[in-house]
Each structure stands twice: as C-alpha cells, then as structure tokens.
Amino acid sequence: MELKLHWQILIAIVAAATIGSVIDKETAILGIAFYDIFDFIGTLFLNALKMLIVPLVLSSIICGVSGLGNEEGLGRMGGKTIGFYMLSSLLAILVGLAFVNVMQPGVIDGEAAGDRLNLSSPSAVSSQLERVEGRGAGDITAVFLRMVPSNVVKAAAEGQMLGLICFGILFGFFMSRIKEEYKQTLTNFWQGIFETMMAITMFVMKFAPIGVFGLVAKTITVTGFDAFQPLLLFFITVFLALACHAFIILPLLLKFIGRVDNPLLHYKAMMPALLTAFSTASSSGTLPITMECMEKNAKVSNKTTSFVLPLGATVNMDGTALYECVAAIFIAQAYGLDLSFATQFIVVVTALLTSVGVAGIPAASLVAITVILGVIGLPLEGIGMLLVTDRILDMMRTSVNVFSDSCCAVIIAKTEGEEGVLEGDFN
Questions:
Q1: d(C-alpha 300, C-alpha 46), whole Å
Q2: Which pLDDT score, from 0 to 100, does residue 91 have?
Q3: pTM for this one?
Q4: Which residues contact 141 (CB under 8 A, 6 or more apart)?
Q5: Would you state the CATH architecture of domain 5-415?
Q6: How many helices (H) and strands (E) does the chain have?
C-alpha cells in the first residue's frame, strides 16, 4: 500500500535531518559536494512550484468567481454570506498579524533567525530586500495602483500577482454575465486550464518529499539543528493565533451577529466534522459531514447549508489566510526586516485575496505564501523550511476553515429567521 504524501514528507524530513547531521558542507562524492546536490534538489522543487503560480492562481480565481455568479449569489443570502466570509477572513489575518508581531518567531535572542535557517545573506538578496524596506504609510496608494496593472500580460510575466488576482476577479465576475454561448466557451476554456494545472500540481507534489529532503538536508548540513528553534516558535505562534480565532473571535461573531445564546453548543454540534477535518486536512472532503452536522445537530435548513457550506469550502479559508500572513511576516523577520505599516498592509490585502483565489487546490497555502512573498519582494527560499511543520498546522487550519464555514451557516440561518437553530439536545 502506497504511503500517503504527508507520511512520505515526514520520512523525508527525518532522513534529511539524519543525513545532514552526519555530514558537513565540504563532504563530497565523486568530486561533487553533498551540499550542492541538496541545493540542486531543493531549488528544482521550488522552481517547479513557482512555474505553476500564474496559470494556477488565475484559472482558479476566474473559475471560482464565475461559478459564484451562476448561483443566486447576488441575492440577499449571497450578499450576507460573502460579507461574513470576507469579515471572518480579515479578522483571522489581523489576529495572525498581531501574534506574529508580538511573538516575533523570526527573531531569536534579539537576532534575525536567517542564519539558523540557512537563508541567503542580506547582501545576496539586497536588491530584493530594498523593495521592502523604507516604506511609509503614504505608499499604501501604490498598493491600489498595483491592483490595476496597465499591462496584465507584463504583470503576469513579472510576477505582479496582486494585479493579476484583481484582473482574475473582474474577468470571472463579468464572464458570468455575458451571453450564454460565449460564457460556456470561456467557462470550458478556463475550467480546462484549471483542471490541467491541478493535474500538474498533483504531479509536482508527488516530488515534494524529495524536494523537502533537499531543502531540509541543505539547512541541517550548514546549521545543524539550530533551525528548529525558530521553527518551533513559528509553530507555537500559528497555533496560538488559530486558537484565538477559533475560540474567541468566531464565538463572539456567533454571539453578537448571530444572536446565539450559547456558542459552546456549536462546538458540540460540529465535533464530528471538526475531527474529520483535522484528520483529513481537507475542507472539501469534510463537506458532507459538515452539512450533516449542521442539518442534524445545529438544525440549520438544507436551503441554507446547501448554498453557504459548498461556497465556504471554495472561498472561505480563515485558517489558511491567517497562516499565510504569519508565514510571510516570519520569513521577513528571519531576514532581519522591520516591515513598515504599508508593507504589512500589502500582506493583509494579498492574504485576503489569495485565501479566496487559491482555496481548494493542492498545497493551497504553499502557493499563496509564494504569491505573498513575490508581491512584497521577498526571496522564496524560506518556504522550504515551512514544510517541516506544515502537515500538523495544515490539519489545524483546516479545522478552523470548516468551523468558520459552519459559523457562517448558523449566522445566515439566524438572520434569515430560521427557527430552532442551535436549540435543544443532540448527540
């Protein structure tokens, strides 16, 4: 029986840590240094991921937004649903931003953790880092200018993802409003691209264990196990931020927007779905159980769940958005950068847009973080180390994603006047 991908990655990490700890940077075979071999493998994997970004993100956004237009999505329920999803995702990102700025996982003993993580020296990436430093609040206007690129092809070629994402949203929105004959042609075209990119992504991810092995072994060869201290602090930061959002922010939204007397009842109602989401790390795979919990336990009508929950599994990713934000700031801290308000604002906007645009695709957070780093001008090499803790954090953030979807369904049901929601006993 073939091992699941996350077990393969875990084995690769253990093997990389073991091999990296017994050899040094100068150890060679047939005149080729092991470090260079590890570097080649890791770089090849990162390049493959970067190759996917533009067509994958653009096609997923266009397909998602155009599909939304075909729902009764512009009606009252649709407006409430989209409004809640945007609000909850924004709050999740701000929670992540607060935690990562307070805990500073990328700073160890007052120094940037870049050396421990074996990231390139500042001099090697100075041209990129100069794009990030020295910005003020007045530069926020430049963010909105970049959201409307003068040449979308050039923006794609140069990796200006913020403008490409906005173009994709506009294209998908108006694509759903043209004549049926043209709309169907475009829908088939973009859906074909999306399905093809999904297949390529799955193909690339089959090599993730090899890529992770190269990235981790390269780091351990140079730094030993010093890299795990900042990664442990990063893990704790994400965990606490996710817990804050799941156990404080979302219950408050249930209480004050949904008028739910006892938000704790909702945890009991959703427990089977949350455990399934945690074990599978798949919002889409958990959807049938989520709908059953909402209708059987929380007593939300099928009319509401059949619209709100599938849409949420596609566009609402609170946990993922929070993780993207923390990861991007963590990498910036590891490079020793004190990000300005304007740059952190860019991170918030991009995390919000990408959490909608790349939701539901394989390695969604990995693609999204790549997009964010590209937007703010940071090197992508730090992404490889995030894979060390990614599996368990993926399970956690998927549970938060599913719980947020369910909170939205309860709030929509309450505001639509449904009776019996989260009332009475259930198993």
A1: 44
A2: 95
A3: 0.71
A4: none
A5: Orthogonal Bundle (1.10)
A6: 19, 4
